Amino acid sequence: MTAVLQAEGLGKRYRRRWALTDCTLEVPAGRVVGLVGPNGAGKSTLLNLAVGLLRPTTGAIRVLGGTPAGDAGQLARVGYVAQDTPTYAAFSVADHLRLGARLNAGTWDQELAERRVSRLGLDPAQRAGRLSGGQRAQLALTLGVAKRPELLVLDEPVASLDPLARREFLQDLMEAVAEQELSVVLSSHVVSDVERACDYVVVLVDSRVQVAGDIDTLLTTHVRLTGPRRDAASLPADQHVVSARHTDRQSSFIVRTERPVLDPVWAVDSLTLEDLVLAYMAPEARPGAAPTPALEALR
Ligand SMILES: Nc1ncnc2c1ncn2[C@@H]1O[C@H](COP(=O)(O)OP(=O)(O)OP(=O)(O)O)[C@@H](O)[C@H]1O
Question: Which segments constitute the ABC transporter domain (predicted)?
Fold first, then answer.
């Protein structure tokens, strides 16, 4: 199966600042991918490279096997909703659907669009400028979904929504994924949203990918070890230490390992996705790193 997203040594520099560095990734199709990281980590930069709004400074990126925005066919296969869920304030909801139909002739699913609008309780005659932030986000998602893309790229789709609306939006998105043959890449700095909607995660910190993979697999190959104070170097070579914490008498490590930890000296606990993401954000997971801004963990 073709990877939806393949990046090799991908980097983007704005003047002297690197927004994305040495990004090598291969994301399989048919997944809902959560791109998670703190503010300024490089999430929007990676998504903009994926949809062809930016060109790489180094390396290469392929999306659905082709060059992002390389030709009309490629543009039709990818839907994109930018961070500020852009809509036209003076256009009505119905105008937006007409525009979607005109811009995406051939793939546009008017019935799907109208069904969503009606289910969401949006008045077709209402101007987008008079919609709430959440309703505008839903309208933008409707346009993205009704285009019937193979890949939908969403930059912080739920940032402006209240907790109930974010839950409904993500539920809606998952239904769209189940109904259509669709892959989704969405960015968020809220781990619980990713936990709720995604089955694949990419953790981006300080312009670098720290870890990427199937969430279930990552959670079965990472554990927390708690026990008497030890040096990380004393752990077996097949237990890769991601993060470490010590008190005078105790050590707590988050390790990546393919095998069960049988040493009775350790209490072994499984991790939540939030534990895992925070561990990869820890400075020891990123040698030479400055402290990272906090991630939100909304429930
Ligand atoms: N047009 C630009 N010119 C200069 N620097 C930029 C530009 N766009 C982004 N940057 C810088 O690149 C880095 C990554 O930005 P990016 O928007 O990709 O991060 P992000 O993870 O999406 O952040 P957020 O969660 O706040 O949206 C930041 O340091 C940012 O200041």
Answer: 5-231
CA-only gyration radius of the chain, Å:
21
Cα 256 to Cα 279: distance, rounded to the nearest angstrom: 11
Atom 6 of ligand 1: nearest residue by CA position: 14
Top CATH class of 3-215 equals alpha beta
pLDDT digits (tens, 9 = 90+) for 144-190: 989 999 999 999 888 877 888 788 888 888 888 888 788 999 998 88
Q: Predicted ipTM?
A: 0.96
Q: Give the confidence band of 298 by pLDDT, cuts at 50, 70, 90.
A: very low
Q: Ligand 1 — pocket residues by CB below 6 A?
A: 14, 17, 19, 37, 39-45, 189
Q: What are the CA-CA distances from residue 108 to residues 71, 79, 101, 249 (Å)? A: 18, 11, 5, 63
CB 202 within 8 A of CB 25: yes
Which residue's CA is the nearest one to ligand 1's atom 4?
14
pLDDT score recorded for residue 83:
82
Give the angle subtended at the CA of 114 by the CAs of 108 and 120, to the nearest 5°. Answer: 125
What is the arithmetic mean of pLDDT over 269-276?
95
Distances (CA, A) of 97 to 10, 77, 104, 291, 292: 35, 18, 10, 45, 41
Please state, in angstroms and as integers, the Cα–Cα distance from residue 293 to each residue in 34, 44, 117, 281, 296, following that order: 19, 17, 37, 9, 10
8 Å CB contact between 92 and 127 = yes
Amino acid in position 39: N
Domain regions of the chain by residue span: 3-215, 221-285
188-214 per-position pLDDT tens digit:
888 888 998 999 999 998 888 999 999
Mutational pocket test of ligand 1: of 12, 16, 17, 193, the residue with most ligand atoms within 8 Å of the beta carbon: 17
Residue 47 CA, closest ligand 1 atom number: 18
